[in-house]
Specification:
Length: 203
């Protein structure tokens, strides 16, 4: 029964993939990005193994390994969840993915922040780092300001507009809300795409 349901969901996913060019392009780009990030993480591991014993890796190298590994794993998980009908869970994971992208961009432009990120290894330190630099859209606001400065414009809503759908779905589903509970219990229909429900639908 479970194998039949899984096969049906994967078949429906492939049908949508073939029928929707935009979705196909997004799917292929996501796979390429996940592969690229995985290769970067693997290359860094190789660099570390070839490093002399008496030489410590730079903070930037350690941070890059952490970021690339996490972003690659998140993308692979998002891909697999979507392929098998768990798009609601994939959307919730996307919120965490975007937070990592934000702090990565911030670290690229701030070596002191990179040092703090690398030093936040223990759970208490990691939690303090999150509250100080990421929670309540702190990192996202910094990214917006960086884009404003780069483009030479002020008060742009470019980041908000690009992320609107992903962030709305993520915030609605990642927090304990009625919408999150009912959506995961009974699934949702988005065009021809059916989210996987906890309770079996009898047709």
């Amino acid at each position: 029964m479970e194998e039949v349901g899984l096969r049906d969901r994967k078949t429906k996913f492939k049908r949508i993939l073939n029928a929707n060019p935009d979705f196909y392009l997004l799917y292929r780009c996501t796979n390429i990005s996940a592969s690229w990030l995985s290769l970067l993480a693997g290359a860094l591991v190789e660099d570390f193994s070839d490093m002399p014993v008496d030489r410590e890796p730079r903070d930037e190298q350690v941070a890059a390994l952490a970021f690339f590994s996490r972003l690659a794993n998140d993308l692979w998980a998002i891909i697999e969840l979507t392929e098998t009908g768990f798009d609601l869970q994939a959307r919730a994971l996307t919120r965490s993915y975007l937070e990592h992208v934000d702090i990565l961009i911030c670290c690229i432009h701030d070596k002191k922040l990179t040092k703090q990120f690398v030093d936040a290894i223990e759970p208490e330190a990691a939690n303090a780092f999150w509250h100080k630099h990421i929670s309540k859209n702190k990192a996202k606001i910094k990214v917006t300001n960086l884009i404003d400065a780069t483009l030479g414009i002020g008060n742009t809503d470019l980041v908000d507009r690009l992320r609107e759908e992903a962030e709305l779905a993520g915030s609605s589903l990642i927090h304990p809300t009625m919408l999150a509970g009912l959506s995961t219990a009974f699934g949702t229909e988005d065009g021809d795409y059916d989210s996987y429900p906890i309770f079996v639908r009898f047709r």
